[in-house]
Write a structure and sequence with these properties.
single chain; 253 residues; alpha/beta; four-stranded parallel β-sheet; 9 helices; globular
Length: 253
């Protein structure tokens, strides 16, 4: 099974999100056919684009950056073209790079660290390749199509849910009961113990569980990055809302 995602609509949705966050995006120009679709998790493509756009706007502000999406063979190519050394900055900040450095100083906030690790696992799941050479005028990410083997008849896919509130666990489990087997855990330690026993189709974590204990959460994410390379992580402040959106877009399953 594959889910065809409209690439231009996803690009525009990311820009709209950044605009709502009062992040200047006036320099980003899109060059993508309206009809271009690609078999990929919508949430995965959205997260990759959001991370790239966030880094570009932080470095270049309103300087022009051209973003082009195209198909070559069975892969989706996302090409970013900019002035000066803006693409070198994006290259250096990319989580796909080997020995990618830990975030420090201003980037040490919980949200940025988690976003970087989530995008890193997303890039690995989508078998993304990075192409960038001097003089650093353009950077290209190429994504492989996502395909799924059909499940055996009657077999449900699994969702690992990190949620400490019993009422939310009950709500989410009932929401997905017809199509998914929900494995609830209350701590990040229990989550990775469960993943070592059996890898779920997706891991959804309620971040409010770790409000005030972000470093502990991030330490477990760093230690278990190999497991996350096989299981998409969906961080969510509102688990129920995230799951409803994911099931509607096909991001879960």
């Amino acid at each position: 099974m594959t889910a065809e995602v409209n690439v231009k609509e996803t690009l525009e949705r990311v820009l709209h999100t950044l605009d709502k966050q009062v992040i200047a995006t006036t320099g980003i120009r899109l060059s993508t056919p309206s009809s271009l679709t690609f078999p990929v998790y919508e949430n995965a493509l959205y997260s990759i684009l959001y991370y790239c756009f966030l880094r570009i706007t932080k470095e270049t502000g309103a300087q022009p950056t051209q973003v082009e999406a195209s198909l070559h063979g069975d892969r989706l190519y996302l090409t970013f073209t900019g002035e000066g050394k803006s693409m070198k900055y994006l290259h250096d900040a990319s989580p796909i790079k080997p020995n990618h450095p830990s975030r420090k100083s201003a980037d040490s906030t919980f949200g940025i660290q988690l976003l970087a690790h989530f995008v890193q696992s997303t890039l690995e799941v989508t078998h993304t390749e990075l192409h960038c050479e001097e003089p650093w005028q353009s950077l290209t990410l190429s994504l492989a199509p996502v395909t799924h083997e059909a499940s055996a008849e009657g077999e449900k896919k699994s969702v690992l849910l990190l949620e400490e509130r019993a009422e939310m666990t009950w709500l989410v489990s009932n929401l997905l009961a017809d199509d998914y087997h929900v494995m609830p855990v209350r701590t990040i330690e229990e989550a990775f113990e469960e993943m070592r026993r059996s890898l779920p189709s997706v891991f959804i974590a309620d971040l409010s569980v770790y409000a005030g204990a972000e470093e502990r959460f991030m330490e477990h994410i760093r230690r278990n990055r190999t497991l996350l390379s096989h299981t998409p992580l969906h961080p969510a402040a509102d688990v129920a809302g995230q799951l409803v959106g994911a099931t509607r877009t096909g991001a879960v399953g």
